[in-house]
Each structure stands twice: as C-alpha cells, then as structure tokens.
Sequence to fold (1257 residues):
Amino acid sequence: MDSLFGLPMNALLIAMVALLAFSLSTIAYIALRNRIMFLIGLRNIPRRVAQTVLIIVGLMLSTLIVSAAFTTGDTVDHSITKDIYRLYGHVDEIVEFKSREDAPSADIGIPADDFASLEQALRGDPNIDGLLPVIVEEVPVIEPTQRQSAPNARFVGLDETRLGAFPDVVDLNGNLLDVAALAEDEVYINESLADELDTTAGAEIKVYYENEPIVLRVAAVAEGRAITGSFGGGETEGLVTRLSTIQRLFNKPDEIQFIAVSNTGGLRDGIEVTDAVEARLEAAFVANNLQLNIADSKRDNLDLAELAGNGMMTFFLIFGTFSIAAGILLVVMIFVMLAAERKSELGMARALGTKRWHLVEMFVSEGMGYNVVSALVGATLGVLVAFGFTLILAAVFAGADFEFTVEPAVSPRSFIIAYSLGVVLTFITVTFSSWQASRLNIVRAIRDLPEPPAKPGWRSLAVGLALAPPAALLMWWGYASDVAFFFGLGFSLACLAAAILSRLVRLPARPTFSAIGLALLIFWALFAGGRVPGVGELTGGPEMFILSGIVMVASASYVLVYNADIMLAGLSFAGQGFGRVLPALRMAIAYPLASKFRTGMTLAMIAIVVFALTMMSVMNSNFDRLFLSEKNFGGWDVEVRENASNPLEGGLAGALEQGETPVDTSEFAATGSIAVAPPFRAELCQPNVSNCDDLEEFEVYILKGADEAFFRHATIPLQARATGYETDAAVWGAVAGEPSKAVIDVNALGSDFLSFGDFGVFGLQGLDADVRSFDPIDLVVRDAASGAEETVEVIGIMELGASGGGDPGSSFFGLMSTSGLVERVFGEPDFTNHYVALDDSSRAEVVAREIESALLTTGVQASSMRKDREEESALFNSFFYLMQSFAGLGLVVGVAAVGVVAFRSVVERRQQIGMLRAIGFTRGAVALSFAIESTFIALLGVLSGVGLAILLATSLLTSEEFSATGIQGVYIPWLQIIAIAAFALGATLLMTLIPARQAASVPIAEALRYE
Amino acid sequence: MATTAPRPASLRPPLDELVIEASQIVKTYDTGRVQVRALRGVSLSVHRGEMVAIMGPSGCGKTTLLNCLSGLDVVDEGTVLIEGVDINRLSDNARSEYRAKRMGFVFQFYNLLPVLSAVENVELPLLVSGVPAKDARRRSLAALEGVHLTEWASHRPGELSGGQRQRVTIARSLVNDPAIVWADEPTGDLDSTNAQEIMDLMCELNETNRQTFVIVSHDRGVAARTHRIVQMVDGLIVDEERPEGR
Fold:
C-alpha cells in the first residue's frame, strides 16, 4: 500500500515523523526551559484516575480509526499479494492471441508456428526462464460415485516438456507432480475441485465436452495454482493433463491458447525484471510479426492488490471521518473542562507572577502526557480492531463462496504514520485549547467567579469580515464551476460570518442563532435535493456527505441548546405526572441547558456519529429495496446459464426433454433466451462524439441479443426513453420488432472511468445520470476479432435496479438488442442464457434445482433470480454492516464525552450535591439525577442525528437524480435506527453509572465545606 | 412574618419540651495520616422554640456539632435524639426523608441551585417529600411572600443580591414547616445591613412559629439575638450563657 489520497506513503511517513519530532521536541524544550511548569502539568495526570482513563480513551479514538484504516489496507494488500504469489507461482506473464493492438481475443488459438517463432526469438534472454504453451477449456466435471459436480472446472493442458521453469504442479505436501507421467486418461485435479467433487486420488471422474462424456482417473490432488486451473482472482476448480491429451480430446490439434512466461529469479524476485521482459516480448512480437499480446502479468495483479489495499484504507478513512472529527471536538472539550477545573489554581499562579505562556506550557505538558500514551493505545487497538474486521470480512466472503485468505498484517510504516498523526493532531488541538484556557481574568479566576458574557469586539469584527469575502468567492466559484462542495461550504461560511457579525450589532443571541441555524438546515435539506431556487443541482460526491453532516449537526446543535429551555418549560407544565422524580428530572434538564458550550459539544459529538450511521442505514435500505424489487427481474423467475463448452442443443426446452431427470415444464409460463457476444470482442463507439473510423475510439462493452420469446414476456423497467416512445412497452416492442434498435443499461452513463484491466469500458456521452427523455443515439457495434460492424440506435436506458447496479455479471447488464444482431456481427454467440417465467414464482428455487439436476452433464447453472439477488444483497449488507460498525466506533467518543462531563459535574457540583442531600435528597435521587442528565444529552444528540439524517436522506431520495434510478418513496428502516439509538443510549447510561454512584456517595458534611 | 397560618395558642408546643437531646457525642475524622477528634464528648439539649447559637474559634468543632446533630454526619460515639428519634439508628434514606420533612437548612453560601429559579429552589424539599407539584408551588410562593420576595420568584439566584439569596434559602428551609432550622453562618457572606435583616427575619419566624433554630456563628451580634449561646473550644462545650435580656 504505497499511497494515501495520492500522496506517497514514504513521503507521508517522513512528514509525519518530522511533525512528531517537532511536537515531542516542543515538550522537551518546555521540560528543559521550565521544568516546574512541566512537572506541574504532568502531576495533574494521576490526580483523578477515572477521569484520566476517560481522557485517554477519548483521545485515542482518532488514532484508533486511522490505525485501523491503515492496517486494514495493509492486511488486504498483504493477503491478496500472498495469494497472488501462491496462485501465479512461477508464471510472471501470460501471452494471448490478439487481432489488433488493444483487443486480444481469448477464444482464438495461437498458431504453433507463432509459438516456435517466439521461443526462437527469446532464446538466450537472461531475464526469461522459460515459456510454456497452455490450453484451457471450461468443462463440467462429475464424480459419479459421490454424485457431485463442478459445472465450470478449468481443464488445463500443459506442455510437459517445458515445465522445468514452472515447478508449480505440486501435491498437497509440496512435492512436485510429473505431468509427463500422466497416462492419456489420467489427470491431476486441484484442491478446489477435489473438495467440490468430494473425491481423492484414484477416483474416476467424467468430463463433458460438447455433451459427450470423457472418463478420466484422478492420479493425484494438486495444490491450487494458475497452471492447475486456479486463476482469475481466486481458487477455482481445475484439472491438469498434458497439452497433447487435451488437443486430442477436444480435437484442437496443435492449438494453444496461452503462453505462460517465467522470469528469471524465482517466485518473488522475478517481478523486478517484468519491465525488461515485457519490453523484450513486445519487441519480439513486432519483429516477428506475431499476433500476440501480453494479456496479464503477476505484477499487474500485485498492483491491483495494492490498489485494493489503498481502496479499502480510503474507504475506512472516509467512513471514519466523522469519528475523527468527534474525537477532535472531544479533545477541545476536555481541555476546556480541565481549565475550568483548575481555574482558581491558574488564577493564583498568575497572581504569583507566572505568565500566560507558562500556563500554556503547563497545559501542553499535561496534554502531551495524555497524548503520548493515548496515541500508542489507539494505534495498537486500531491494529487489533482491523485484524478483527478483516477476519469477519473473510468469513463474509467465505459464506459467499468467494475464497479470500486473510492474513493480518501491519507494516511498521503504517503504524508509525498512524501514531504520529494521532499525536500531531492532538498536539495541535491541545496547544490551541491551552492558549484559550490561559486567557483568564486573574481576580475572577481566584474567586472562581463566572466570566461575564463575552462582548463581541474587534476580534469578532475581524473574523466576520475576513470570512465574508472567501465565503462569497466560494459560492460564486462553486456555482460557476458546477462544484457543489464549494458552493455549500461558501454558503455555510457566509452564515457563520453573519452570526458573528450579528453579535456586533447586539442582535439578541437566541433568535439570531436559531434563525441562522434553521436557515442552514433548510438550505442543506434543499441543496441535497437540488432544490435551492436559482442554484439547482450541482455536482458532488462523498465529500458532500461529510460537509453536509458537519454543518447540519453544528446548526442543529446551536438551535437545540438555544431553545431547549422551551422543553424545560413544557416539562414543568407537565410536572404533575412525575411525582418525586420531578426534582431530579428538572435538574437533569436544567443543568445541561445552563452549560451551552459543554452540552452543545457533547450532543454534537453524539449527533454527528448517529447522523452518519442513520444516513448509511436509510440509503442502504432504500437501495437494497430497489435492487430486490420484483420489477428488476423483468418478469422472469429462473435464469439458466449455459456452459460454453456444452451448448444446449434445441434450446432449453429441447435439452430438458432429453435430460437425465424429468422436469415438469407445464408450470413454465414462458421461456426466452439471451445470446451473449464473446466478452472483449464486443466494442462500441458513439459516432456523434467520436470518430468511429479510428479503431482506437472503440471500447469494450457487453452485448446481448434476446430472442422473440424473451421480448414477448419481458417487462424490464426503463429509466429513460427516446423521444417518440410513450411507454416502456413501446421501446421494447421496437427493439424486438425493428432491426438494429437497442436498449442500454444505466451504468453506461457513468462508466467511462472504469476499466477491465487494460481495457477502457464504453461510456455513453452527452446524457446526465438522471436523464428521463433523450433523442435516439447511434452506436457502432464492432467485433474486434473479425472487424464486422453494425450501427444500432439506442432508444432506451434501463433502470439501475434492472441493470444490476453496476455488476457486469448481472442478467441484463449491457447493450441489449436482438439475437439476430449478435449473430450478424459475431456469428455464433459465446454462450446463451435462458430465462423461465413460472406460474408460481415461489417455486423458482425448486425449479432451478430440477433444471440443473436434469442438465447436470452440460454444466448449466440454474438459479432463482430473486435468490441470486438476495444473496448478492446479503453479501453486500454484511460488508455494509461491517463498515457501519467501524463508523459506529465514533460513538465511543460521544459516550466518553458524556462520561467526562459527568465526572466533571460531580466535582463542580459537590457542594450543591451536599445541599441536596441535606434538604432530603436520597442517594438514589442524586444518582438518578445524574443518570437522567447524561441520558438527556445523549437523547438530544440521538434525536438530532436521526432527525437530520432522515431529513437529508428524504431530500436526496426524492430528488430528480435519485428518483430517476427507480426509487419510489422513502423507506425508513426504523428497526435499525432504534437499534442504533438504543446502543447509543445504553452505552451512555453505562458510562454514567460510575459518576452517578460517585455523586450519590458524596459525604454530605464534607461536600458542604467543599470549595 | 409567618410562612404558614399562625397556630392557635393552645396548640403551640411548650417551650420546655426537649426537641434535641445529644449525649456524649464523639466524632473523629481520619485524614489518613492524622486523626482529628473534632468532638470529644459533647452533650447538648435544646427546647422546642429555642434559638441557640454555637460559637467558638475556627476549628473548635461547631460546624461538626451542627452536622452531627442534624444527621448530615454520623457520630462515632454517643446518641442524638431529635424529637425522641435516634437519628443515628436510621438508615441513610430514612435520615434523608426525616430531613426533608422535619428540618430546614440555611448555609453561609446559600447553596441554591443556580440553574433553577427562586421558587423552584424553594419547592425542592416539598417535591422530595412527595408533596404534589401544584401544592408545592403554592406553598413555595407563600414562603417567598413570607420573606418578601414574591416578585423575584421566577428569577435565578444569579440575578439576586446576597441578601435576597439568603432569604430564598430561609424560605426553602421553612417551606416544609420544619421542627428545627439549622443555620451555619447564615450571615457570614452578607454585609451588615443584610445580616441585620436576615436576623430580624429569623427572630420573627422563631417568635411567630416557635420554630427551633440552631445557629453556628462567629458573629457576636448574631449570637446576642438568640436565647442561649453555647461556647465551644477544642471539641468541647466549655460555657453557656444567656444574652442580656433573654
């Protein structure tokens, strides 16, 4: 994992270590220059152990989140890297046939002469260990004794005379297996296939090719490697024999499909010469006029592993942003409260002659004492949290049959960066807070008198005036350049400037701040939905989620703390029903309302995390419902995917008639099929934006052609229709009935940044993501292998749910036209998918099993479309809940804040507690008062966070952009929200137990004397 | 001025009824390194309707004695009977309830809750005792009227002067019609004018309602207005006197 948001990690390491050194050297300077203040600062730490522990917990969280994010990235990178090295073995590059420069084709073989020429050209190259011709076919395999099958095993043929540089066919004990020793009817199967078939060495298996069985004996079980059939991103079922055997069995004499290349240097060192080898290969291709291309390399996959690690780390950091923000707020609040606690001492210190700077030194010393320890605790716990998360992730993927071996890992670099970042962030916050705390009036401090309300002066004027121009500039810039973030930030800053300046003209605080707070809330609610009059919709991404959350929570906090006394009045009015609890209740609300800063900060910390969690739940739930909506299945219940090596003769119905076991087709309401053009051969070009005479302008996409039976029954929903088509049915009718009309999935509108390896994916230009109506668009469809072309007219765009949400493997993803188009341009399709609609949709799973069982030897995979979608959704949701749990770590900050406030309150109100006990409050009443007080603040925070999230989510989901996806109405997942709220409140209550008990245990006589 | 309607003369408790009986009470504080014997065998009796001042130098144990007599602290030895009840045998909750219903407290630093209004502070003991909120509010307003602070009922302590705050404290101490009012340096934080007014109020209440007052003070002027002055030195009562004219 080498970069973070584009910054090289090594550079980041140097920068953070430098800043860490600066922070620590500042403390060292204080310790040397003013030992007294340094020691006074440190001696404050053990004064109140419980409070110290709480402060460390609160301070460590930001570091924990950063450390967890980095460690997760390291673990993902390391795990995938380890798997790649294991799977690829000594295969460093893979060469395939190509028809032109950037569009290789995997289903056309490499002529034997080409291999010989290449081998000759590369002979003696010091960087190349060896070349290995390979052939691979995907075939169904059956174990007749165990009645187990693997529908898509990779049958690999290796040139046994050239395996010297590829010692990767090994048994489960690591011993080399001799491919040359295999008889004509013998194979090695890999571990995955052995597990799938529940078989072992010596067993007999059957492979089906073109619907004919081939009986083979298992000579041994080999480890999963690329050359034993495991490639393409994980362990897959495979079996190995000699090249000549497969060529004979599948009637492909002298044909090979891949050339594996091994670099000099072994498993890991070979990477270092990849550039030189690739250059050498390219030169050889050109010099010998070979139609070959480097399709894949170990190093490319290692780069992808690093990308995955970076992506995971970035993902975690984004989700942890709110928690990090809450952590910083907590640091500020802790030091403000520590300053309040020591006000008299500080006043006396100043009276005795210490300077303000000395007080700063003292606080910074104390702060760094907490900081150094808390950052270490946080960084270490972050590593453990990440290990826990990645293990859960691996279990999630294992449940979905996606093999992903997790090996927890953390690099020293990541740990050091996380630790340094935690220390530096807290150091900056502590220094700022210390400077603020040092600004006290000596007499008021000594007498512990409250500070008078701050009168706005020249500082406020300066800040307000300084904010106004950049605010206006940001708004203009954002509007002019269509960047929502700038406009939103500018407007928010403008409101802040207005609030500051309003105090200068002595406007009353409550109505002014309430009005500005409400204005911001309304603005962001409208802005999210593109409904701000005169502004409309501007472009934004995940950064808007963060900005809107922070501003909305801050605004709501202001509105709440300035108006919550209305709640108190209401409570008093309703006081009758509370009996003896009323005084405790009244105090529990009155005290927080009297400390606006403290209460506002605490409720903001809780609100911001609850906001993030609720937003995530609402958005995920609504998209989940969209993807599981019945309309996405287009009226079909069962999907049957053919095996390319064993096409169904006579279509699905014909194959079922001849199947091994009978299937009752009388419950079939309809059947249809979609032919799929060979992947990576189908390319598209948009002539109104590109020059389609230039083959470079073509980009790959998935092309499908449905038959008439499919169109007759299908009801796939459309997001947009071309002008002139009043209904979805009219569009589909035109696609079915007229030549060269097509519908494309909505993902094409935003996919121009995606790629499959080196191949750019086609993106439809000129239409917004929320388009509803458009003029028909011509596209040129081309076969990269043969060069055949045809122009189609796109007259519809499928809804997001029907399009599979960006999953290329989804049923209807791609450009869809007629099967006739596919045949005209590509000849025979690569494979065909069949669809069945049932009279009773609830029988889809049963029918799918029956079809798969009946057609076992053909290797078809039949499944209930609803069940497939539900399993995908379940997998995604498992991952989502993991992310949500990570984001929920921020609740620890909020709960810690409540705890810090509660502990501090016990100290501050000690004398008052004594008085309450004197006039008759029982211990229980005192404890109850404190518990209710903390719960009240937490409740305000939770309600605020939930309310804001629902407001924002509703605005988003009802906007043009989102309703275009097919989302109808807004679904609120109340159970999830209640669970979030209950957790937050429960944790708060637990945190309050100790300070509440402390308050209740205050000795009355001592407390009354306490000053 | 009465906080409740004056009782008919026939129902006034006789002055010679003992309301406080303390016998040989000992109280020791353990600071970890040093043990401080704050009370070394103190005996004191107070009659109903009596106003008693406890005086002595700093650290003589007068506040400790007040705390032990009122149940705010427990004695290590000896007995304390309040209206015949041994308060040291009561559970903490029972003591709290007793204080809520039968005692009032006036402290030097007022100890009003700064976040509640004057009337809300006054009604606290009533609400704690289980008096319905409506009744508690009515009685609290009457109590504030008794100390001439009706128009300040909705103001918070921060908006009141020192003398006004102490009156609120007195109103709070009397709102539950207590048998005994314990006052620890009630005028200690007031100027002379306010101090005079507070003492006038307390004496008026004593004469009108026959409430028993036990006042800790180092102010001779305050003590001079009581029925009896008890002198303490080093944890013992060393002298008792009746001020002139009492």
